[in-house]
Amino acid sequence: MGFMNFDLDAIENYVANHLRLFISMAAGLLVFVGIVALTVFFIYVRGAEQTMVPDVQGRDLTAALLELQVKELYPRITLRYTQTSADKGLVLEQGPPPGTIVKAGRRIQLVVSEGVMVNTIENYLGRNVDEVRIDLQALYSAQSSLSGNSPVPQLITLKEPLMYEYSSDPAGTVLQQRPEPGTTISGPTMLELVVSRGTEDTMIRLPNLLGLGLDDALEQIGRTGIDFAFSLRPLRAGEKPETVVVQDPPGDTLTSSNTRVAITMASPDTVPEKEVFGLFKYDMAKNPYPLLIQLESILPTGERRRLLSVQYPGGRLSVPYHQPVGTVLVLSMLNREIYRQTVSRQVESLSP
C-alpha cells in the first residue's frame, strides 16, 4: 500500500515538473517571437537603408547604371538631342544632385544625350535661298523643343552676308554651297551659299499706268514687278483725281529690269475730314535681288486689306494711300513685319 502511494507521488511530481518546464518554454518562445516581431516592426518603421547619390553626370550611360546599381538606386531615363555627336550616350543631367542622401531603391532621373538630330548637310542647290532660311529656322525650332528648357545654339547657321553672282537661274536660286551636300557634321556648322542675282541685262516692257486709279496702278505694279517711285501733286485742270498723270519712262518702253519708274499721281480735290490721302514712305536697304514686300492696312473696324504686293529691290519705298484716320499701315518683307504707322491728318508720313 505504501509502495503504491510512492509511485503515484513520483508520477505526480514528474508530471508537475515537466508541465512547469513546458509552460516556461512556451512563455520564453512567446517572448522571443515578440522580440523578433518588435525588431522587424522597428526596422520597417525606420525604412530602407540610406545611401548617397553618386555623381554620374558626364559618364557613359552603361557606367552610370552600374554605379547606381551598386548603391541600390534605379534610373529613370529621358533622352535629349544635343549639338554634337561626341556626347551621344553620356549623362547630361541627374536628379537628385550628387551627394544627396536618399533611401535605397530610390528612382534617379537621368537625362541622356541622343546626339545631334541631323548629322549630314542637306542639298540646297537649286532651291530658293528664302526657303533655305525657313528650313533652317524650322530645324532650330524642332531642336529647341526636343532639348527642353536648355538653351540650344543653332545647329546649322547661314553665313551672312551671302555671296551673289549674276546667273541665268532665277534670282535667289542657290548656285553653290559649302559644306557640300552629304557632308557629315558633328556640331554647329556654318553654311556658305552663293546665290543668283538673276540675269544682269534682263529687259522688260513697262506697263502703261497713265490714267489708272490708285488700286489699279498698284495692282499693275505688283503683277509686273517694276521698280517704282511715287510722288503726289495737286490736281490740275482736266485731270482726274487720284489717277496716274505722269510716268517716266512711259508705258510700253523696253528697258532694263532695274530701271526705276517715276510715277506721279494727282491728289483729290477734297478729302473728307476723317480720311487721309497721303504717301507712305520707308527707307530700306538695297537688296541684291528683288524680295517680296507687302503693304497692308488695318482699318479702325479691324478689317485687314492688302494695298500692294510686289517683288521689290529695296531703297526708298513710296506708296500712295487713301485711308480713314486711325488706320494702321503695315509693311512686311518675306511675310515678316518690318514697320507700321498709324494714319493721321499729317499728309506726308515720315520714314523711321
Write up this protein.
- It contains four helices and 20 strands.
- The chain is elongated, with a radius of gyration of 43 Å.
- A hairpin with a 2-residue loop joins β19 (328-333) and β20 (336-342).
- It folds into three domains: 50-115, Trypsin Inhibitor V, Chain A; 129-196, 2-Layer Sandwich (Trypsin Inhibitor V, Chain A), CATH 3.30.10; 203-342, Trypsin Inhibitor V, Chain A, CATH 3.30.10.
- By secondary structure, the chain is of the alpha+beta class.
- It has helices at residues 2-46, 61-70, 129-146, 214-224; strands at 50-52, 74-81, 91-95, 101-103, 107-115, 156-158, 163-165, 174-178, 189-196, 203-205, 227-233, 244-248, 254-256, 260-266, 275-284, 291-298, 304-312, 315-324, 328-333, 336-342.
Secondary structure elements and pairings:
Blueprint: H1 2-46, E1 50-52, H2 61-70, E2 74-81, E3 91-95, E4 101-103, E5 107-115, H3 129-146, E6 156-158, E7 163-165, E8 174-178, E9 189-196, E10 203-205, H4 214-224, E11 227-233, E12 244-248, E13 254-256, E14 260-266, E15 275-284, E16 291-298, E17 304-312, E18 315-324, E19 328-333, E20 336-342
Quick structural summary:
The protein has 352 residues and is an alpha+beta fold. It folds into three domains: 50-115, 2-Layer Sandwich (Trypsin Inhibitor V, Chain A); 129-196, 2-Layer Sandwich (Trypsin Inhibitor V, Chain A); 203-342, Trypsin Inhibitor V, Chain A (2-Layer Sandwich).
